[in-house]
Design a protein that fits this description.
41% strand; alpha+beta; 155 residues
Length: 155
C-alpha cells in the first residue's frame, strides 16, 4: 500500500522501530475528517502486543473521523538532536499505517489503560488502578491494527 522509502540507507529494522514506539512520549494521529480533509493531532499512546492504543473521550472529532474512515497514519519521533553546523538533525522515527477501531471489551480497555498507566504514571500505579476503575465507563480506547510499519534513523 505504501511507497518505498527513498533513503533505504536510513531504514531501521522492525525491532529498532518498535523500540522507538515503546520509548516515544507522544505521536501524531492523522486521519481524514468527515469532509475528507486531513486531520492530525498529537496524542499520548502506548505500543502493546503489536498494537497502538490511544485513550479518548466517549464523543468527539477523533471518534467522528474514525467512524467516517478508519484508515489512519500514526507517526512518532525520538532522539532528536539538531546539528546546527551541518544544517541537519539526528532522529529516529516510526510511521504506521493501519486501521483504528473502538474497543468494546471492558477487559481489553482495562488492559490498554493499565499499559498507558505503566508508561506514563508508573510511580502512581496503585492510585492509577483505582482511577482506571472509576473512569473506565467514561473512557474510550482506540486500537490501531498495524498494516505497515517503517522506521527511519538519521545518525
Amino acid at each position: 500500500m505504501n511507497k518505498k522509502m527513498r533513503r533505504k540507507d536510513r531504514q531501521m529494522s522492525e525491532a529498532d522501530t518498535i523500540k522507538v514506539l515503546k520509548s516515544a512520549q507522544y505521536g501524531t494521529l492523522s486521519m481524514l475528517d468527515t469532509e475528507n480533509k486531513p486531520y492530525g493531532i498529537p496524542i499520548s499512546f502506548v505500543y502493546e502486543n503489536g498494537m497502538i492504543y490511544l485513550h479518548c473521550a466517549t464523543a468527539g472529532t477523533k471518534l467522528d473521523n474514525i467512524a467516517h474512515d478508519n484508515n489512519v497514519c500514526f507517526s512518532t519521533v525520538t532522539d532528536v538532536v539538531t546539528i546546527q553546523e551541518k544544517f541537519s538533525t539526528r532522529f529516529k522515527s516510526a510511521i504506521i499505517f493501519g486501521k483504528a477501531e473502538l474497543i468494546n471489551s471492558i477487559e481489553e480497555k482495562r488492559t490498554a489503560l493499565i499499559a498507558i498507566l505503566n508508561k506514563y504514571c508508573h510511580d502512581f500505579y496503585e492510585p492509577g488502578l483505582e482511577y482506571i476503575e472509576k473512569a473506565l465507563a467514561q473512557t474510550n480506547i482506540l486500537r490501531i491494527q498495524i498494516n505497515d510499519i517503517t522506521g527511519k534513523e538519521h545518525k
